[in-house]
SDR family oxidoreductase (Agromyces albus), 310 residues
Amino acid sequence: MSLNGKVAIVTGSGRGLGLAYAAELARQGASVVVNDVDEQTAASAVASIEAEGGKAVAVVAAVGSTETAKALVAAAVEHFGRLDILVTNAGVLRDTVLWKMSDDDFDTVIGVHLRGTFTCVREAAIRLREQGEGGRIICIGSPTGQRGNFGQTNYAAAKAGIVGMVRTWALELKRAGITANAVIPVAATAMTATVPYFAAAVEADAKGEPMPAFFRHDLGFGTSDDVAGLIAYLASDAAAGVTGQALGVGGDRLQLWSHPEPVVTAYREGGWTYDALAADFDTEFGGELQSVGESFPALPDDLQRPAASA
């Protein structure tokens, strides 16, 4: 097993993707600190890992505060003697369009996703640097953070911010031998279960059946377990040379996302005045403006679901 003797923290790992990550890390030999806001859910996750022969303990707390971050690191050290891996997965959703989004909607999502990632990584980095043996930071992003999505101002901001922090941490932690990467998962979750477009895939997953090839191959949409292998790889010694990257994974597809780079560069002596922009912007940039959001191909006929009756 590739992670024998390693110790990992996985936030938001009571169920879903987080549990899949924790379980795979344990299968690869790591001892795992499980985290969830619900005591019974956390206990069930620990029991499922132990039933497969793994080692796990639970910390029941909401991610976001420094106190929770310190408790997670302390649990790893107290129960398993060290820390090697942190996976920041915890998150919440408060979806609504901009003009209806409340301060609380915004602050709650930013607090868990963005601040929670920051506080947990900060505490982990302190411990990893003290140990002096390197380490692995793996932060969970989203296609929404990369491309935007209708009704998710708060979530898009948080997930884009996480990738920005990862790039910075890769620079700051390199000398200590600590890698920092972002994973962009595409998988069947409670959120995608409500989207009619994914109904055939979600139904197949719920029945324990293989998802149709259209979803797995064409869309790169799969199960939680399809994402877990990348998490374990990035946590291993085999990925020591991978840092500062955003990697997408889902179904049969693995992607390396680019960093933002200029698409077109134009120069004008004396600078770009309003008049110059009005005259030349379309000529210089009009054909290169970037798209936003994600677009999906039409479902094959055999995967379409009849529209609900009124």
